[in-house]
């Protein structure tokens, strides 16, 4: 990776090259890189499963796959993408790397716990991969009882163990971030001088520590029922399968916010930097993360409108679900207000951020359709729901994750990514994404149920559009995977602060030394204090970047 | 840059910061434990509401004397633990070791009594899972099975936490013999104490939930 013969300053990457220096590292930056490798691998597996799903759905007949194989593929796609990509993606990679840097700290408060959480993640991942290789699991990512506890004959236990173990990884990451934010801030760095990314990570961590233990106990109960016949969910033994849904969604609805709150944090940083402005309504953006975290714990019943729960409970859940729109809208309006008459530059991370704002808005607004109990009965378990949550998770979280990866790539690796290719693939991702998922709204409204692979012929056009979009999306994801690896060797050397951003992470060399800062930084001004006349920022060519071919 | 000796981890500036971080981490961990048990308590709530009569019946088959003794044993172990934390803070190594052994002893007594109660339930065919023969009147069968399921589940998870706690205490005893738990490292004893008290607190709820549901008229068993 280091090609020049001139002596490099010591940084966290070149301090040691042995395998054990990586596997036993306590450095949060190296652990972030380990996570990056782990979740990228998982993303590829989950993406492959989705590829087969979209291929099968090209035709109305079930001709490519048998029903059971299809069930296993969408289950694998869901479990891998939710538990092993979306939930850890931004916190465990970007959060791990950036939180101590943003706080002016040498490391997270609990470096050993941090390494432990990576190992738990990998052990959980290996269990799940083993379950897939051994024969797969077909319960859907939701593990609904009594299917998962009584009827399914697939590798439910191995997958459940995988999810259970990786849940503790998530808990420990949240715990670590909370303790770090409280105890490791630089002198002078008050809460209102924190970057918004830190606020959103903190809100995410709250959900991780409050929600994850509940899904852990739900999965434990499913496991005990399968192994020993402790019939907590089995009606023939006095139990109630609906209790599982309550316990599961008590975590898994807030888990949606574990996936999207970090994305809000990334987008707040990107919007501020590339419009060179303090985010409009800083405190509102910060507190709205907490509002979402709190409200998120009170809306799980909107997944159960058709489960036979009391209609009064349904009404309350519906109302509170509508309330989530308020803090979400506060964020969108504030980002937009930040852009108003700002000096915007359309670097790749900003393209992703703008894409995020649009797609998240669509995802959020269609969420309101689903929050309305009457409409939900019509579109429940249809592709409308599938489209909605993919707009949030893929259009939202994955876009923000890619934006963040590009934005902090120079800091993480010391190399610039190729801007032309990056912009091209950002646009590809946006186009491919919309082509994939917007037809699914229509399909769902027309009544196509999720998790079926045989459908009436009149829906083929929309399904083919969706599959075609998925192929574009796949190309859009393949490019960054390629050129980012390429940039490790051939990318131009990155300056300390290539985007003229504020924040402590840009005040240390790229890549940072092992203990992050040569001297303890002291914070004397608020964050996002952009100087009016840009003195640091230079045209792209002067930053040492190769002018790119027009894409 | 501050001096770093063996007891101060590299990421901290001073012992105060390290202590604050360690203690906050323990409290946050206990919050996650609280939520973990919370899921089980929710299950208890749901089924007690559904099967009130059977929960009363089931509770009458519990040995309330042994349950009370166990509650006293566990509360006393919390006292020895609290005193051990104090001994570590004032660097009284002899006292610390003595009190840790006391806590381990009481914790083991608790588990012993619990094991005896489990055995008793096994003998009386009150175990509704793992293919055991389960004796109950047909009209109460489902409710009683749920009661015993929850009893074994919740006290079992609690006992597992006790075993982990006792393991933790054994590690502390070894460290204390080596003289490694005084000064800045006393936070380890403090945090273990927090964990122990939490586990104790869970039992304070489990005891009435399973042993004291029904007002007792006469004999039981």
Write the layout of secondary structure elements.
The complex is a heterodimer of chains A (551) and B (221).
Chain A: H1 19-23, H2 28-56, H3 67-102, H4 111-134, H5 147-151, H6 156-183, H7 196-228, H8 241-275, H9 282-296, H10 311-339, H11 348-371, H12 373-379, H13 383-413, H14 419-446, H15 460-490
Helix pairs in contact in A: 2-3, 2-4, 2-15, 3-4, 3-6, 3-7, 3-8, 3-13, 4-6, 6-7, 7-8, 7-9, 8-9, 8-10, 8-11, 8-13, 9-10, 10-11, 11-13, 11-14, 13-14, 14-15
Chain B: H1 15-50, H2 52-60, H3 64-89, H4 93-123, H5 141-177, H6 186-211
What's the quick description here?
Chain A has 15 helices and no strands. By secondary structure, chain A is mainly α.
Description:
The complex is a heterodimer of chains A (551) and B (221). Chain A has 551 residues and is an all-alpha fold. Chain A is built from 15 helices and no strands. In chain A, helix 11 (348-371) runs antiparallel to helix 13 (383-413). In chain B, 75% of the residues lie in helices and 0% in strands. Chain B has 6 helices and no strands. Chain B has helices at 15-50, 52-60, 64-89, 93-123, 141-177, 186-211. The longest helix of chain B has 37 residues, at 141-177. The model of chain B has no long low-confidence stretch (mean pLDDT 92). Classes of the chains: A mainly alpha (551), B mainly alpha (221). At the A-B interface, helix 6, helix 7 and helix 8 of A face helix 1 and helix 5 of B.
Strand content of chain A: under 5%
Give the number of DSSP strands of chain B. 0
What best-fitting shape of chain A do the alpha-carbon axes yield? globular
State which percent range the strand residues of chain B make up. under 5%
* Major beta-sheet overview of chain A: none
Radius of gyration of chain B: 21 Å
* Overall morphology of chain B: elongated
Helix content of chain A: 55-70%
User: What is the terminal separation of chain B in angstroms?
Assistant: 67 Å
Structural class of chain B: mainly alpha
Sequence stretches where pLDDT stays below 50 over 5 or more residues of chain B: none
Alpha-beta content class of chain A: mainly alpha
């Amino acid at each position: 990776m280091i090609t020049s013969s001139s002596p490099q300053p010591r940084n966290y990457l070149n301090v040691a090259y042995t395998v054990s220096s990586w596997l036993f590292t306590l450095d949060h930056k190296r652990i972030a890189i380990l996570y990056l490798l782990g979740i990228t691998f998982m993303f590829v597996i989950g993406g492959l499963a989705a590829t087969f799903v979209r291929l099968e759905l090209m035709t109305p007949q079930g001709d490519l796959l048998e029903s059971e194989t299809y069930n296993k593929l969408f289950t694998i796609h869901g479990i891998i993408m939710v538990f092993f990509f979306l939930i850890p993606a931004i916190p465990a990679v970007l959060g791990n790397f950036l939180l101590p840097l943003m706080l002016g700290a040498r490391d997270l408060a609990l470096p050993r716990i941090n390494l432990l959480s990576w190992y738990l993640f990998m052990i959980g991942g290996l269990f799940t991969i083993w379950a897939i290789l051994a024969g797969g699991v077909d319960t859907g990512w939701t593990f609904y009882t009594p299917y998962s506890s009584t009827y399914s004959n697939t590798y439910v236990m191995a997958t459940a163990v995988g999810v259970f173990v990786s849940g503790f990884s998530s808990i420990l990451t949240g715990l670590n971030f909370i303790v770090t934010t409280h105890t490791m801030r630089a002198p002078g760095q008050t809460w209102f001088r924190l970057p918004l990314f830190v606020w959103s990570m903190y809100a995410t961590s709250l959900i991780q520590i409050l929600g994850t233990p509940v899904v852990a106990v739900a999965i434990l109960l499913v496991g005990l029922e399968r192994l020993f016949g402790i019939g907590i969910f089995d009606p023939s033994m006095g139990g109630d399968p609906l209790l599982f849904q309550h316990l599961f969604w008590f975590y898994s609805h807030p888990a949606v916010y574990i996936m999207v709150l970090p994305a809000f944090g990334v987008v707040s940083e990107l919007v501020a930097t590339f419009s060179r402005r303090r985010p409009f309504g800083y405190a509102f953006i910060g507190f709205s993360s907490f509002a979402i975290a709190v409200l998120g714990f009170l809306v799980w019943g909107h997944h159960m409108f058709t489960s036979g729960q009391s209609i009064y409970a349904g009404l309350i859940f519906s109302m509170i679900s509508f309330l989530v729109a308020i803090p979400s809208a506060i964020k969108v309006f504030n980002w937009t207000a930040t852009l108003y008459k700002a000096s915007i530059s359309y670097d790749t991370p900003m393209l992703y951020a703008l894409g995020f704002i649009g797609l998240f808005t669509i995802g959020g607004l269609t969420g309101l359709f689903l929050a309305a109990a009457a409409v939900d009965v019509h579109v429940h378990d249809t592709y409308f729901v599938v489209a909605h949550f993919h707009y949030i998770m893929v259009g939202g979280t994955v876009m923000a994750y890619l934006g963040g990866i590009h934005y902090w790539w120079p800091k993480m690796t010391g190399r610039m990514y190729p801007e032309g290719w990056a912009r091209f693939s950002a646009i590809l991702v946006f186009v491919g994404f919309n082509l994939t998922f917007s037809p699914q709204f229509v399909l769902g409204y027309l009544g196509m149920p999720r998790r079926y692979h045989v459908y009436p012929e009149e829906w083929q056009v929309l399904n083919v559009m969706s599959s075609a979009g998925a192929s574009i999306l796949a190309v859009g994801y393949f490019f960054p995977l390629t050129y980012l690896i390429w940039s490790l060797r051939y990318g131009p050397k990155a300056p300390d602060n290539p985007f003229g951003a504020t924040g402590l992470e840009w005040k240390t060399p790229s890549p940072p030394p092992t203990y992050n800062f040569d001297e303890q930084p002291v914070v004397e001004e608020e964050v996002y204090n952009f100087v009016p006349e840009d003195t640091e920022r230079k045209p792209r060519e002067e930053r040492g970047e190769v002018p790119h071919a027009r894409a | 840059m501050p001096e770093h000796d063996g007891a101060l981890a590299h990421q901290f500036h001073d012992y105060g910061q390290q202590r604050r971080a360690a203690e906050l981490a323990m409290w946050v961990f206990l919050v996650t434990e609280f939520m973990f048990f919370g899921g089980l308590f929710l299950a208890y709530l749901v089924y007690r509401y559904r099967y009130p009569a059977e929960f009363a019946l089931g509770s009458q088959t519990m040995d309330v004397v042994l349950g009370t003794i166990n509650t006293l044993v566990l509360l006393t172990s919390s006292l020895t633990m609290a005193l051990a934390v104090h001994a570590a803070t004032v660097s009284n190594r002899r006292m610390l070791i003595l009190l840790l052994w006391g806590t381990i002893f009481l914790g083991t007594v608790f588990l012993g009594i619990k094991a005896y109660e489990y055995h008793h339930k096994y003998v009386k065919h009150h175990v509704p899972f793992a293919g055991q023969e389960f004796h109950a009147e047909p009209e109460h069968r489902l409710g009683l099975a749920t009661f015993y399921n929850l009893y074994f589940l919740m006290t079992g998870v609690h006992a597992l936490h006790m075993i982990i706690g006792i393991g933790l205490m054994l590690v502390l005893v070894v460290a204390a013999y080596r003289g490694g738990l005084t000064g800045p490292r006393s936070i380890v004893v403090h945090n273990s104490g927090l964990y122990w008290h939490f586990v104790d607190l869970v039992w304070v709820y489990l005891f009435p939930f399973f042993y004291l549901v029904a007002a007792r008229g006469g004999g039981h068993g």
